[in-house]
Amino acid sequence: MTILTTLIGTVAFALIAPVVGCLLAGLDRIISARMQGRVGPPLLQPYYDVRKLFEKESVSVNSVERTYVGCALLFAWVAGGVFFTGGNLLMCVFIITLSSLFFIMAAYSTRSPYAEVGAARETLQVMAYEPMVLLLAVGFYLAAGTFDVGDVLALDAPVITTIWLVFLGLLFILTIKLRKSPFDLSMSHHAHQEIVRGMTTEMSGPTLGLVEIMHWCENVLFLGWIGMFFVWGNPLSIILAVAVVLAVYFLEIWIDNNFARVKWQLMLKSAWAVALAAGGVNIAFLAFL
Amino acid sequence: MAFASKSPWVIHYDGSSCNGCDIEVLATLCPGFDGERFGVVNTGNPKHADIFLVTGSVNEQNIGVVREIYDQMVEPKVVVACGICACSGGIFHDCYNVIGGVDKAIPVDVYAPGCAVRPEALIDAIVKGVAVLDEKSKALKESKKRGE
Ligand code: SF4
């Protein structure tokens, strides 16, 4: 895997992922509205929102906030570039974590009490999902014999056949990663205020637009991880992967609409318990049997 | 093309309303009228909001708050005075501590009368406000182009 492929992949991801992510976000809002007995916004509503945010006056509480958010977006693109060019999964995991850290720094830098609470909660969220994400990488290595995502195309059977428990664990933390209720502690998309709006409390206009785009790109990347489990040597498996990804996304929307936000203690405990039970047991089986 | 009109996020502040208008404002934003069809989102954060819905009159206690919220909102922004109290002080106009309508504190773009203001009147007012928002957005763009 050369640097050049990763670079080209990053640029391609930076162009394509926002489009896909935006459409997914639009679908999310329509489906959520239908679940609540409403008509809901047009499909392109998230796009309109972001365009509007970029049209707004550019104000910022300090000079570094937007730089941090920009870095977070940049590293989300690189992580996507690494993943979708078939690069190293472990590398992708670390880069996307770096992106989250930049976002946390952006929230802390504003010195607003609500944003700081949001940032502290985001740190807890990272702590909650990171063990499972690392076990995902380890499980993937044991199942595929390599960390390179591209090598799944040479497998005789998809990795889901050997690490389905890890897959279930990933499904659990995916709710945290996609910022869906019951785990949308640091920054919710629905009730836009105070602690619930958390990290983005002080961000406005173009900065908020960048956050939104980063969120779309992250969503595409995480759904890519889900799809990865279902791809093997057969080219038709890509269709299966896309179908599974859409089903999982629908499941996440359903969860989002049906569960109330939990306290961080429960999130942390349950995420670690799931990581240990799902990831740990699966990996122990693969490593020792 | 201005996108401001396609995604008007609103913030609601209760001045010294009797709560009649607040109930109507929230009713307007509830699923029954489904404001999200037009991109309306109810935010609680002035920094994210485009339209400021104020109910009730301005008095000595809240004039600072109203101004603070207005100042925190990012241009282009629009203010809608909801209900006759917010327009002119209404039934409370000669109370000892009431200063008057919202326009005594901040510039108001659209006046929605009624006691209490009906959701239909409010939707009309928001639609008017959205047109003003578009104008302001265009003006901002032009001033940006001129490099001001
Ligand atoms: S206009 Fe009427 S309903 Fe509205 S706040 Fe004033 S008195 Fe209450």
From TrEMBL, chain A:
Pfam families: NADHdh. It is an enzyme of class 1 (oxidoreductase). It is a multi-pass membrane protein. This is NADH-quinone oxidoreductase subunit H. Coiled coil: none annotated. It is found in: Membrane. Keywords: Membrane, Oxidoreductase, Transmembrane, Transmembrane helix. The chain crosses the membrane at residues 6-27, 90-108, 128-147, 159-178, 238-255, 267-288. It comes from the Bacteria. The keyword Transmembrane applies. PANTHER family: FORMATE HYDROGENLYASE SUBUNIT 4 (PTHR43359), FORMATE HYDROGENLYASE SUBUNIT 4-RELATED (PTHR43359:SF1). GO terms for molecular function: oxidoreductase activity. InterPro entries: ComplexI_Subunit1 (IPR052561), NADH_UbQ_OxRdtase_su1/FPO (IPR001694). Its EC number is 1.6.5.11.
From TrEMBL, chain B:
Keywords: 4Fe-4S, Iron, Iron-sulfur, Metal-binding, Oxidoreductase. Transmembrane segments: none annotated. It comes from the Bacteria. Residues 18-128 form the NADH:ubiquinone oxidoreductase-like 20kDa subunit domain. Its EC number is 1.6.5.11. InterPro entries: Complex_I_20kDa-like, NADH_UbQ_OxRdtase-like_20kDa. Pfam families: Oxidored_q6. One of its GO terms (molecular function) is oxidoreductase activity. Its cofactor is [4Fe-4S] cluster. SUPFAM superfamilies: HydA/Nqo6-like. The keyword Iron-sulfur applies. Coiled coil: none annotated. The keyword 4Fe-4S applies. Belongs to the complex I 20 kDa subunit family. This is NADH-quinone oxidoreductase subunit NuoB. The lineage of its organism: Bacteria, Bacillati, Actinomycetota, Coriobacteriia, Eggerthellales.
